Amino acid sequence: MASSSAAATFSLSLTTFTSQTKTSILSYKTNEIKHHLSSSVLGTKLCVNKVTRTMSLTSSRVTCSASSSSSSSSSVLPSALLFDCDGVLVDTEKDGHRISFNDTFTEKELGVTWDVDLYGELLKIGGGKERMTAYFNKTGWPEKAPKSEAERKEFIASLHKRKTELFMVLIEKKLLPLRPGVAKLVIISSSAYLCSGSIRFEGFPVRVYTAYLVFHVVERQLIDQALEKGVRVAVCSTSNEKADSLRGQAFTVSAIASLRSGSRVSAIVSAIVSFLLGPERADKIKIFAGDVVPRKKPDPAIYILAANTLDVDPSSCVVVEDSAIGLAAAKAAGMKCIVTKSGYTAEEDFLNADAVFDCIGDPPEERFDLSFCGSLLQKQYVS
Hints:
Elements: E1 6-13, E2 26-30, E3 33-37, E4 45-53, E5 56-64, E6 80-83, H1 92-107, H2 116-122, H3 128-139, H4 149-172, E7 182-183, E8 191-195, E9 198-202, E10 208-209, E11 219-220, H5 221-228, E12 232-236, H6 253-258, H7 267-277, H8 279-282, E13 287-288, H9 301-310, E14 317-321, H10 324-332, E15 336-340, E16 355-357, H11 370-375
Parallel strand pairs: 6-12, 6-14, 10-13, 12-13, 14-15, 15-16
Antiparallel strand pairs: 1-4, 2-3, 4-5, 8-9
Helix pairs in contact: 1-4, 3-4
């Protein structure tokens, strides 16, 4: 083969393939690293475009289209791109809360460490204070812990408060990395300003929603793509934390502005958006906390609220989730859903997802981009 660049297109037409089969659509090798691209799109024609140089693959992109040509998919974009937060933008639990719990235990000299696997089991228990209490009840309370039940309750509360403080330090120091490719998919051509506790826009509106707390720094790329194209962006949160609960924390101006008196938004999510995505992006983002809807995921209320607020048809929205619960919420809202599996959700059932990836990915190893999101909206089923 000649040393010059050569482009090749591979079209695959499969009547059925799902995330459960875990079958690789393509397996190739670049610099001795194997990459597997998989999808759970049912009855979809996939067009995989690749560029090769001197026998080696240097970049790869997966796109879906209704025809054998991938060019048509580039003209269709979603009206809104809605992100879950934890596990999608950042792996908050593994890289944030778990680390903060361990730092607290070390600081208090309790002789306790929660590794990744153990913390995954503890996540089955809702709430940080409840998690610590259940763990100590099962394994034995630290020697420095008080003996009475009332004092132990206060002890747990103090540990949790310190854990939250250390967690905020991780955010402020930008030690919570965005997952690969996030930033690429959110640069907007419109301006935003705060008015009476809400965001109003000149041009295309942009929002961010979340399903719990936090982001990873690489996800900005996907976000930038969307904003650059005028696609509305949102992060949907089920956090119930009031703005006043973390008043006094060292937020940026934009984060503080989004936490105006009376706003029922998550102070932590606001800080994350500002610190990890940057204040310029944060100024274009509106956060909706979970208490603005009556029911949490898997109920679709948060995504329906997003579509109504953005004045877009739910069927034109693409959601990026990491859990089966989030997937169920997105599909119940009538939206397309891409799953980017996280460490604690990798084994969940994503049969109904429109596509499944390990992450969004950074160039040259991006798993999908904004055009791919748009292609999911087209009629793409084959006989």
